[in-house]
């Protein structure tokens, strides 16, 4: 059997790592297509080298662009790839423009599509990810769900017969890297200048268009971070840097120290060394939970509702209008046990098995 993985953005590379490893233990052929949605070394190459992922077999090189331009470029480029590779399955990941384009290109040419991380919903139609994931789920033949909640959403949309619960592959990779970091197998992360790794600090990321694209809102959010009583290591996504520059907003103010995005082991090390996380990233909310740090999420909702239980994660859509933002951001991690809502760390093997047996 031949399976093509279509990936393009940073979080998909993290999910690809355990899937590629699981395929390598089978006789099946696994072909990696990188769309090129993310192209900076910080967002792409370091994940291949750091997580031991084989180099992409095909690189589409689409780069950045508006939604239509980027999605359309992947869609157009995939025709040739599918015609020459003739896969048994096309596997798409998560909810980016590369995901929906990969899925659509395959169904149109009658190739079977599996969607990893199916069934997540924010019910917020302003988010590009929400369109991408809903459309991908309805196009796909096999829906590999990470959580019971995702299975419920798929059932509510009449997709139960195509859905299977495999768990979350992010657990596979996050726990493996955590153990390696704790065993001293990775160098200490390069935190932004001005952050003392041995004193309390928060890890922060912001990249959602709803937080970065409106100048007033971005300035207000950065202002709230700047006023925190502990240093904030802001690991800045290029989108954030680009928008801040465009709007004339200085990210390096008050408590905020700006640094580059970290490789995966660096991020895990940074979170393990931190007093907590403030983010709008889906992946980081879950990584904080898995690594036992309190998370404050700058969004009105989350797809990962399990993290909200017992206050491990707290939603603060508007930090600048939330009088107790400071107390929330610096609150200690809860002492309650977290359970394993995201599975046992063997999701990738189960996902590969589900594809092979479907
Ligand atoms: C994309 C995904 C988002 C995911 C995120 C993870 C979509 C619609 N969004 O958002 O779901 O959470 O990846 O990081 O697919 N840029 C660079 N270098 C790069 C890539 C991007 O400088 O390698 C800059 C460019 O200015 C670009 C901007 O970042 O225009 C946005 O990149 P894009 O891929 O459109 O979306 P992300 O914000 O990264």
UniProtKB/TrEMBL annotation:
Q: Which residues form the UDP-N-acetylglucosamine 2-epimerase domain?
A: 27-355
Keywords assigned by UniProt, alphabetized: Isomerase
Please give the Gene Ontology molecular function terms for this protein.
Answer: UDP-N-acetylglucosamine 2-epimerase activity
- The protein's superkingdom reads Bacteria
Q: What class of enzyme is it?
A: isomerase
Q: What is its EC number?
A: 5.1.3.14
Q: What is the residue range of the signal peptide feature? A: none
Protein family (similarity comment): Belongs to the UDP-N-acetylglucosamine 2-epimerase family.
Under what name is this protein listed? UDP-N-acetylglucosamine 2-epimerase (Non-hydrolyzing)
Q: Which organism is it from?
A: Streptomyces asoensis
């Amino acid at each position: 059997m031949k399976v093509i993985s279509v990936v393009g953005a940073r979080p998909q590379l993290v999910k690809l790592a355990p899937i590629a490893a699981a395929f390598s233990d089978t006789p099946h052929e696994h072909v990696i297509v990188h769309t090129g949605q993310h192209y900076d070394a910080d967002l792409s190459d370091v994940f291949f080298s750091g997580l031991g992922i084989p180099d992409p077999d095909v690189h589409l090189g689409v780069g950045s662009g508006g939604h239509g331009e980027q999605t359309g470029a992947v869609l157009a480029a995939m025709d040739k790839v599918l015609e020459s590779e003739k896969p048994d399955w096309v596997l798409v990941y998560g909810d980016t423009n590369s995901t929906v384009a990969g899925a659509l290109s395959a169904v149109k040419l009658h190739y079977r599509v599996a969607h990893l991380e199916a069934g997540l919903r924010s019910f917020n139609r302003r988010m590009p990810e929400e369109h991408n994931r809903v459309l991908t789920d309805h196009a796909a033949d096999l829906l590999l769900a990470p959580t019971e909640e995702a299975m419920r959403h798929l059932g509510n949309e009449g997709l139960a017969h195509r859905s299977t619960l495999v768990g979350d592959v992010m657990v596979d990779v996050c726990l493996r890297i955590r153990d390696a970091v704790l065993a001293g197998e990775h160098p200490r992360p390069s935190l932004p200048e001005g952050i003392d790794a041995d004193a309390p600090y928060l890890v922060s990321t912001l990249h959602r268009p709803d937080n970065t694209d409106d100048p007033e809102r971005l300035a207000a959010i950065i202002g709230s971070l700047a006023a925190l009583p502990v240093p904030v290591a802001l690991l800045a996504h290029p989108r954030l840097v680009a928008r801040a520059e465009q709007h004339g907003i200085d990210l390096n103010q008050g408590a905020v120290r700006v640094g580059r995005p970290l490789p995966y082991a660096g991020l895990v090390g940074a979170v393990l060394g931190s007093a907590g996380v403030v983010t709008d990233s889906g992946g980081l909310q879950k990584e904080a939970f898995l690594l036992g740090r309190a998370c404050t999420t700058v969004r009105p909702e989350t797809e990962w509702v399990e993290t909200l239980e017992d206050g491990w994660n707290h939603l603060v859509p508007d930090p600048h209008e939330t009088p107790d933002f400071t107390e929330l951001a610096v609150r200690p991690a809860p002492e309650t046990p977290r359970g394993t809502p995201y599975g046992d760390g063997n999701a990738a093997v189960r996902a590969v098995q589900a594809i092979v047996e479907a």
